[in-house]
Design brief:
Blueprint lengths: L4 E6 L2 E5 L2 H21 L5 H32 L4 E7 L2 E6 L6 H29 L7 H20 L7 H14 L2 H30 L2 H30 L10 E2 L4 E2 L4 H9 L6 E5 L5 E6 H5 L16 E2 L4 E3 L20 E5 L2 E6 L1 H18 L2 H4 L9
Parallel strand pairs: 2-3, 6-7, 10-11
Antiparallel strand pairs: 1-2, 3-4, 5-12, 7-8, 8-9, 11-12
Length: 393
């Protein structure tokens, strides 16, 4: 789900898309123009069907974005840090860099997404009825009806109690509320999600071999595989977050990292910082001493040898607004799942405007390994082998 194209910011939230979304847009336009719309509104020209199909595909993608924006806007209002939205093959993902504090907040953040899709679906059906023209609907009516149907289908499908779909997260919130145990709620919801994924995979295989439906069967298997992987990932993430609970950013960071003036040439930076240090990444500051970004070894390597003397590192450094930041008191779990970006996964630790430290992905990885190792050593032998004699405990 890596972002391939940035769409800028909407309501202050970064939005990007993965190239796989273009595949879905093309399939939607093709299926509408060659099959669905000609059957629903016969008698139109081929060009008219294609125009309606392409426009419908873009409106559908805008509907997906509205669904994810609803999640992100409410999350931000509830104090959750929103890193951005990525639209891709299976819809969209709202990326949060901190967690909700209560099951109620999580349920609200989750529910507004399907609610937005259902409201949009109703609005499109209402518009279709308003412009309808009797027993033989026109192209506009048929297009609006399809948009209404697909948005309601999106809303209903997301409400299925299969983690990590929105319905699965609502189920997790309910179990969390009843038990007071977030990890237990995650494990139960993930287990139900994996069972649903296996059913979807089985359905796809039966569809493919019994009826010969290549597209429908393969799509069901692929979607089931994705849900299975995502549910397992959520379950693992829950264990990691529990293992790291109580650990702050200050406990992990490398304090007082060496900073490089951003008006230094690449040639001087290589000799004064890179070759003279065991580090490969350096925070940078401007002429007034203010933090300005991060210089990475990958950025330095992109500068040709004959340009190193005349190229200043400020022109190749990752700017501060593209670098994740945290305060020393923040929980380290807030740093899990942050995208790499041009800072290569580094997080700058800032305390009252002053650079206090830096955290790399390897720091997090080592902490996770130590924490999980300590946790497994504290568990009974039966549990470490995968058998829990008391899963409700």
């Amino acid at each position: 789900m890596n972002e391939n194209l940035s769409l800028g910011r909407i309501a202050g939230i970064h939005v990007g898309l993965n190239w796989s979304l273009l595949v879905i847009a093309a399939l939607i336009a093709w299926s509408l123009a060659t099959g669905i719309l000609p059957l629903a509104a016969p008698g139109q020209t081929t060009g008219a069907y294609w125009i309606a199909g392409v426009l419908s595909a873009f409106v559908y993608l805008a509907s997906l974005l509205a669904h994810e924006l609803a999640h992100s806007i409410v999350a931000r209002r509830r104090g959750v840090r929103v890193e951005g939205i990525t639209l891709w093959l299976f819809g969209g993902v709202s990326r949060f860099s901190s967690e909700t504090a209560s099951p109620g907040s999580q349920a609200l953040i989750t529910f507004v997404g399907p609610l937005t899709s259902l409201v949009l679906g109703g609005a499109f059906f209402f518009a279709s009825a308003a412009v309808g023209n009797g027993a033989r609907p026109g192209l506009v009516t048929a297009t609006l009806s399809w948009l209404g149907f697909i948005n309601i289908l999106l809303g209903v499908f997301n409400l299925l109690p299969a983690f990590p779909l929105d319905g699965g997260r609502l189920l997790q919130s309910l179990i969390w509320l009843r038990t007071g145990d977030r990890l237990r709620a995650t494990n139960i919801a993930a287990g139900i999600g994996m069972a649903f994924a296996f059913l979807l995979i089985a359905y796809g295989l039966v569809t493919f071999f019994a009826s010969g439906s290549l597209i429908g069967g393969v799509w069901s298997v692929f979607l089931g595989w994705f849900l299975l992987s995502a549910a397992r990932s959520e379950q693992t993430g829950g264990l990691i977050r529990q293992a790291l609970s109580g650990i702050s950013v200050a406990d992990v960071m490398t304090p007082n990292p060496v900073q490089a003036p951003d008006d230094t040439s690449v040639e001087d930076a290589l000799h004064a910082y890179v070759l003279a240090s065991r580090h490969s990444t350096f925070p940078t500051h401007d002429s007034d001493g203010r933090l300005s970004g991060i210089l990475t070894l990958a950025a330095l390597k992109q500068v040709s040898p004959d340009a190193r003397r005349t190229t200043l590192i400020k022109s190749i450094a990752c700017p501060l607004d593209s670098v994740a930041t945290a305060s020393p008191a923040d929980p380290v779990t807030n740093l899990l799942g942050l995208s790499n970006g041009c800072s290569e996964g580094r997080t700058l630790v800032v305390d009252h405007g002053r650079l206090a430290g830096i955290i790399s992905p390897s720091d997090i990885s080592r902490l996770v390994q130590r924490s999980l190792s300590g946790r497994s050593q504290a568990l009974p032998v039966e549990t470490r082998r995968g058998y829990d004699p008391n899963p409700a405990g």
